[in-house]
């Protein structure tokens, strides 16, 4: 009888990149910009957690005033309906804690990339633990989780902003420390991001979207008194047009920069910010307004509430 010699297991690995298999094996999840046509989002509809906010405790959760639960839900429902009207699939977080009234501000809890989500770690104790329900929901949807901020790091999703597939701005400040920022940078470089622009978030803001937001391909709206020269110079060198918004009343009270691009040059923004709206229109942007005054009582608005799951590449 001939002796059979086995040369190893003879199981060979596939050499394809994760991104090449993502759509077939996981689903259609992708984001490399703030303005590519929006296809899918994750929201948290305000639940029991906001019903306990009152005149005595609203400041403990960094609210500017108590929030009327019925009006807040109505305003977010109207936003969700507007998303759907524009072809956006809306998903909701399941099983969120009922003692975390800030949980509706979903942008802080995850940061979407071309290969999956980075689960964030909130900075303040009043928000810690919200991310668990987000991770569980993403897993149930089939969204890959490529990183969870850990160790001594903390990082919130609004401390990062896509400029294009190769460029991301990362801010450090009261909601993102160096350890958290380095963890995010490492993951982004691993998936092909070449330009990481680090900047400090000033004392008067907690997130990047408090003073900068992409409004169109290669167009960035900024509140110039909060941006740093080094950050803006790097963006200018990359061909980014800066649109300066000087209306501090609308920026801070009306959250006029807290908009979402539905597609390049088409945004939905909080109503009641006429000067900001006219500035955007002057730069060729199509503007849809929606009432957000109740949501703003939690110092957040449209951009804060919306976690991207899928945007078309631009």
String of helices and strands: HEHEEEHEEEHEEEHEHEEHEHE
CATH class of the domain at 27-215 and 295-311: Alpha Beta
Q: What is the CATH superfamily of the domain at 27-215 and 295-311?
A: L-arginine/glycine Amidinotransferase, Chain A
How does CATH name the architecture of the domain at 27-215 and 295-311?
Answer: 5-stranded Propeller
State mean pLDDT (0 to 100 scale).
95
The low-pLDDT segments are: none
Across the major sheet, the strand order is 2-1-15
Mind telling me the C-alpha Rg? 20 Å
Pfam families: DDAH_eukar
Protein name: Amidinotransferase
GO molecular function: arginine deiminase activity; transferase activity
Keywords: Transferase
Question: Would you kindly provide a written description of the structure presented here, covering whatever features stand out?
Answer:
With 314 residues, the protein is α/β, with parallel strands linked by helices. It has a domain at 27-215 and 295-311: L-arginine/glycine Amidinotransferase, Chain A. It contains eight helices and 15 strands. It has helices at residues 18-25, 69-85, 130-141, 178-190, 229-237, 248-252, 274-282, 302-305, and strands spanning 38-43, 89-92, 110-113, 116-119, 145-148, 160-164, 167-172, 195-200, 212-216, 219-222, 241-244, 260-263, 266-270, 286-290, 307-311. The strands form five sheets. A three-stranded mixed beta sheet has the order 2-1-15. Strand 12 (260-263) and strand 13 form a beta hairpin. The longest helix is centred in the first third of the chain and has 17 residues, at 69-85.
């Amino acid at each position: 009888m001939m002796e059979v010699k086995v040369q190893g297991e003879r199981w060979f690995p596939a050499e394809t990149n994760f991104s090449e298999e993502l759509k077939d094996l996981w689903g259609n999840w992708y984001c490399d910009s703030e303005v590519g046509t929006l296809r899918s989002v994750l929201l948290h509809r305000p639940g029991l957690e906001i019903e306990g906010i009152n005149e005595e405790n609203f400041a403990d959760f960094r609210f500017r005033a108590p929030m009327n639960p019925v009006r807040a839900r109505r305003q977010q429902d109207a936003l969700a309906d507007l998303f759907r009207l524009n072809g956006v699939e809306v998903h909701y977080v399941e099983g969120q804690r009922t003692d975390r009234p800030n949980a509706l501000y979903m942008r802080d809890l995850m940061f979407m990339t071309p290969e999956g989500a980075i689960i964030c770690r909130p900075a303040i104790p009043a928000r810690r633990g919200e991310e668990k329900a987000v991770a569980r929901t993403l897993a149930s949807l089939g969204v890959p989780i490529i990183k969870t901020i850990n160790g001594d790091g903390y990082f919130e999703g609004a401390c990062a902003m896509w400029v294009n597939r190769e460029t991301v701005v990362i801010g450090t400040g009261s909601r993102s420390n160096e350890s958290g920022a380095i963890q995010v940078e490492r993951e982004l470089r691993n998936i092909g991001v070449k330009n990481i622009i680090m900047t400090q978030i000033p004392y008067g803001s907690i997130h990047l979207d408090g003073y900068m937001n992409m409004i169109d391909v290669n167009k960035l709206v900024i509140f110039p008194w909060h941006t740093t020269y080094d950050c803006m110079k790097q963006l200018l060198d990359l061909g980014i047009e800066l649109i300066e918004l000087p209306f501090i009343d609308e920026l801070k009270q009306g959250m006029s920069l807290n908009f979402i691009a539905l597609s390049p040059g088409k945004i939905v923004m909080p109503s009641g910010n006429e000067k900001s709206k006219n500035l955007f229109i002057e730069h060729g942007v199509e503007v849809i307004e929606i009432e957000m005054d109740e949501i703003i009582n939690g110092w957040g608005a449209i951009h804060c509430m919306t976690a991207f799951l899928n945007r078309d590449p631009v």
